[in-house]
Amino acid sequence: MSEYILEMKNITKEFPGVKALDNVNFKVKRGEIHCLVGENGSGKSTLMKVLSGFHVHGSYNGQIIFEGNEMKFKSIYDSEKVGIVTIYQELALIPELTIYENIFLGHEIENNGVIDWNKTILESSNMLKKLGYEMDTSKKVKELGVGLQQIVEIAKALSKNVKLLILDEPTSSLNETDSENLLRIVKDLKKHGITSILISHKLKEVLEVADTITILRDGLTITTIENKNITENDIVKYMVGREIEDIYPKRHHMIGEKLFEIKNWKAYDKKDGKYVVKSASFHVKKGEIVGIAGLIGAGRTELAHSIFGNPDDYVVSGELYFDGKLQKFKSTEDAIKAGIAYVSEDRKGNGLILDFDIKTNITIANLKKLIKNGVYVNENEEIIVSEKYRKSLKIKSHSIEQKVLNLSGGNQQKVQLAKWLFVSPKLLILDEPTRGIDVGAKHEIYTIMNKLVEEGMSIIMISSELPEVLGMSDRIYVMAGGKIVGELNSQEATQEKIMTMAVEY
Ligand code: ADP
Ligand code: MG
């Protein structure tokens, strides 16, 4: 028996105008966890779709050898029959159905042509138990959070007698606890002999779980290497194809006097009927990047929202000083007028209008700037401004007329940044500025942040990624349970110190 459960040889896959995969070779050892990494668009998902039969035999060139035999899948069903199961980036469960219905959907347990529901329910619970979860499987999937939905997907894979499990960016929408659970399960499955291919842009997690790592770039296999022989910096270098001495670029900036300060800040959430910010006092100086760290649910986003003037959602108390004056923002417009901008964590939800083009998204928050002599929207100016940002922020797109919907996550984030830069705020609040984007685009966003503070802007960065908080902040505040529980300067801060504050308040 070969050491390799899977060999993909010389795979080439073209779409109209794009060679997504160019002679890719990819070998996976039996029983290992093999991580596949690469920037957005490097071909990871396409390679896995070739493997799963989503892109059918004949639509690509090259060979797939699975357990020693050549495979010519005509559908996903064919690959699942031999034990290759993919969990896609977009979850494929049916929200209206129960957990057990979902787990056995498409391969129902039958008895004389009739579905055996008792057995279905029993087996579903067993699958979940194997994964360490005891739950009522008659719940509808829509009642579960994304974390549990992923678990149900894995249970579904187990029910199909999976030999090779493929997870395409499973943790990108999960919080830390759910991500850790998922990775624990993948490691557990390994103990039971199940081979996994894990696609992830979170290099920390890749380095934690991988036996072997393959790096793709622009549709080419750059290298396959054992985890123990590679560092995070090497991976980044292979991914982006250029030297990055440091993921976090150096900056040369002058920190000035206090620009912003809140004292005894409290925010009461009207909808939830409770205090989401119980006590927060902190300040930001001119030209400073202040990081706000904390666990999910610590109240960081609520803090930002309450500062940004959302009287419909929150009742706030305490003092807010901005630009030397005690201020009260009755609306977000007030906050914007004063010079504060907030880039939300949820790009798709409320940051951008996906159906509109780049140009409109960039200028929409500040159309005033485009009014000349009382005439609404100076279109020429709109084009010039958007082109300027498209170039300076390196927004990858064919033109400013392209719909934001079709951009990658990193480029959508840049459009959001451009939108608020056009407002030219004094204080920019960035909420999870690099969530879900690849390391090359992250580096570019950090570079933009540095340039802004060098020009005198101040930034509050809310982030759950501790390396990012440590790499980018001049000072760090830690939030827990709705309170700011500690402050650290960049020299003294470590991941351990932050975590200790975040959990022990
Ligand atoms: P990754 O998963 O690494 O982010 P993908 O495999 O999704 O990358 O995409 C690789 C390239 O192929 C990209 O340039 C993408 O735009 C293109 N591509 C992927 N799927 C399609 C498709 N169905 N039609 C056209 N182009 C596609
Ligand atoms: Mg992908």
Automatic annotation (TrEMBL):
The UniProt record lists the keyword Cell membrane: yes
PROSITE patterns: ABC_TRANSPORTER_1, ABC_TRANSPORTER_2
UniProt xrefs under PANTHER family: CARBOHYDRATE TRANSPORT ATP-BINDING PROTEIN MG119-RELATED, XYLOSE IMPORT ATP-BINDING PROTEIN XYLG
SMART domains according to UniProt: AAA
InterPro entries assigned to the protein according to its UniProt record, in alphabetical order: AAA+_ATPase, ABC_carbohydrate_import_ATPase, ABC_transporter-like_ATP-bd, ABC_transporter-like_CS, P-loop_NTPase
Primary residence: membrane
GO cellular component: plasma membrane
Gene3D superfamilies documented for this protein: P-loop containing nucleotide triphosphate hydrolases (3.40.50.300)
UniProt keyword annotation of Nucleotide-binding present: yes
Membrane topology label: Peripheral membrane protein
Organism of this sequence: Marinitoga hydrogenitolerans (strain DSM 16785 / JCM 12826 / AT1271)
Record's protein name: Monosaccharide ABC transporter ATP-binding protein, CUT2 family (TC 3.A.1.2.-)
Source species, domain of life: Bacteria
GO molecular function per UniProt: ATP binding; ATP hydrolysis activity
CDD domains: ABC_Carb_Monos_I, ABC_Carb_Monos_II
